[in-house]
Amino acid sequence: SLSPPVPSGPPPFNDALLRADLEEARVQATLLADAVRAPVGERDGRLMAQLVRNCTVFQERIFALVQEIPEERGVTELLLTTGETVGAALAAHDALAARGGGG
């Protein structure tokens, strides 16, 4: 019996999936930034904690992808920009938490 061919090299890169993930990361970062800017009485601590967890996961994933993406794909800048957006939202939350105002 013949065995199926073994793929050589890394799996094909999926631009569409990456772009969808990056868009979701931007959405999560925007929601977190909005939550941080909300008046104290309107902040949802549980939601903010979930957004922080989500943004942290996306930030780690983005930084890992930056190392793996073939340069010719032209998405490295998109990854870095999204990573900076997520990082800024997390930093804003950390600053708020340090002042005792964040979840």
Automatic annotation (TrEMBL):
It comes from the Eukaryota. The lineage of its organism: Eukaryota, Cryptophyceae, Cryptomonadales, Cryptomonadaceae, Cryptomonas. This is GAT domain-containing protein.
